[in-house]
Write a structure and sequence with these properties.
mainly alpha; Growth Hormone, Chain: A; 17 helices; about 80% helix
Length: about 475
């Protein structure tokens, strides 16, 4: 007997994908000291534990979305969740830094196939405008809740002392959740219509992944090795590969061969400015989460459990501000985002001035909460503002490029800003934190500049994107 179909139940099932994928970004930050000790890793390896996950996610995100169209979204969601659960367990079984970095990359790759299906299912299941808005609202709340859950769980689980090291539990916890979701998806998810006309740009995937690897890996490992020739050569090579990738995509577009990225989007000035805003913001956002989690424990002597709890109130304020921003931005436009990044900049300056060994819990939580409030005003709405100038027929492709930039930016933030932080760590955690936050403030200024260059929504014109 076929189980009764319920679209809200199906939504609950597919929302597990973004829930787990985001938790597994945030859960690592607080547990970094424990993980480093557990696998006897270096600072570079623990950076790669985060950046590797984001790299695998970013490189295959567009491919994951297209796989759902080609093979069926239920099937791709199931296999993505299965491999995500499997590689999560292998992360928990890792004995060396290299093993953990490799399995984290594969975990991120799996996430890039399961998460896009959640967005696609919302579009397929909810044709009514009000219901779709509610479904996307639940998607946003899931992301906010995942950030809170990840930080809290990372602190709590990594502090457990038992038969199994606590930090390993932050990966093993995905096993029961993944198993239940797989069972539920088999029973209750309905398959969607397949679109087999478009072929994958397999060579584009390989070229883009190679370019990202040649950039991010030497940025992390090169610093620890004293910037040997191979690290500089790989960085230079990465730019050459990126140029080749763009030319390759242009050629495939001219020949109507379905490229990975529609490069015509980059002719839209406001789209490019929006991309840079996303790039700079997510670099500082992800880097700050890493820096603050390590500094609170190493520099201010906060326990892993308390460190996780300190992120609860900022997370709640982030969610409240996100919901408020969705309404305010209709009336006030990009000024809402400018206020948000301004609040964040003020918070970072106050942290530089007021945080030091002996700082009380109230001041720490207050400034982090202020950061959460400001971040909530800008982060969820940044993509929508940047996409205003994109023609409707290119909205899906543009969203895919934005999502790829977002994950790539997070990896770069961990690599570059995190690299500066760990470079100064031998001189003391206070010095390291000041250096890292100083870099973050530079990116705050760059985001403010990009927002100033973006037009207000009501003045936006829609360009025509004919292929030359």
């Amino acid at each position: 007997m076929t189980p009764l179909k319920n679209k809200w139940l199906e939504l609950a099932i597919v929302l597990v994908a973004p829930l787990l994928s985001v938790i597994d970004v945030f859960i690592i930050n607080v547990a970094i000291p424990a993980i480093k000790k557990g696998v006897h890793g270096t600072d570079g390896e623990v950076q790669l534990v985060i950046a590797g996950y984001l790299l695998g996610y970013a490189a295959f995100l567009i491919t994951g979305g297209r796989a759902g169209d080609h093979f069926g979204r239920k099937k791709v969601f199931f296999w993505g969740m299965l491999f995500f659960t499997l590689f999560s367990c292998l992360c928990g079984l890792s004995q060396t830094g290299f093993q953990l970095v490799a399995t984290r990359f594969l975990q991120g790759l799996s996430a890039s196939f399961m998460v896009p299906q959640a967005i696609a299912f919302i579009q397929v299941l909810f044709t009514d405008t009000k219901e779709r808005a509610k479904a996307f609202g639940l998607f946003g709340i899931t992301l906010g809740a995942a950030a809170i859950i990840g930080q809290v769980l990372g602190g709590y689980l990594s502090d457990i002392r038992g038969v199994v090291e606590g930090w390993r539990l932050i990966f093993f916890i995905n096993l029961p959740i993944g198993a239940v979701t797989l069972f539920a998806s088999k029973l209750y998810l309905s398959e969607t219509q397949k679109h087999t006309g478009n072929k994958f740009d397999y060579s584009g995937i390989v070229i883009l992944t190679l370019a990202l690897f040649c950039l991010i890996y030497p940025l992390i490992e090169g610093r620890e090795a004293g910037w040997p020739f191979w690290s500089i050569a790989l960085i230079v090579l990465s730019f050459g590969i990126f140029i080749y990738f763009v030319n390759d995509q242009k050629k495939k577009l001219r020949e109507d061969r379905n490229p990975l990225i529609d490069v015509r989007l980059f002719r839209i000035r406001d789209f490019n400015i929006g991309l840079l805003a996303v790039l700079f913001h997510f670099m500082l956002h992800t880097a700050y989460l890493l820096l603050s989690a390590v500094y609170l424990q190493k520099g201010l002597g906060v326990s892993a459990v308390d460190c996780g709890l300190y992120f609860i109130l900022p997370g709640i304020l982030f969610m409240i501000a996100s919901m408020a921003a969705a309404r305010l931005i209709i009336r006030f436009g990009k000024r809402v985002l400018q206020i948000g990044i301004g609040i964040m900049g003020l918070t970072f300056i106050l942290q530089l001035a007021l945080w030091h060994p002996g700082t009380g819990a109230f001041l720490i939580v207050f400034l982090m909460s202020l950061w959460g409030l400001g971040n909530g005003l800008i982060l969820p709405s940044l993509m929508n503002v940047g996409l205003k100038s994109v023609p409707a027929e290119y909205a899906g492709a543009a969203a895919g490029v934005y999502s790829t930039f977002q994950q790539t930016a997070s990896a770069l933030g961990v690599s570059i800003i995190g690299g500066v932080f760990f470079y100064f760590a031998p001189q003391g955690w206070q010095t390291a934190y000041h250096a890292g936050i100083g870099m973050i403030l530079v990116f705050v200024a760059l985001v403010l500049l990009m927002l100033a260059l973006l037009p207000e929504g009501k003045n936006v014109t829609t360009p025509h994107l004919a292929m030359e």
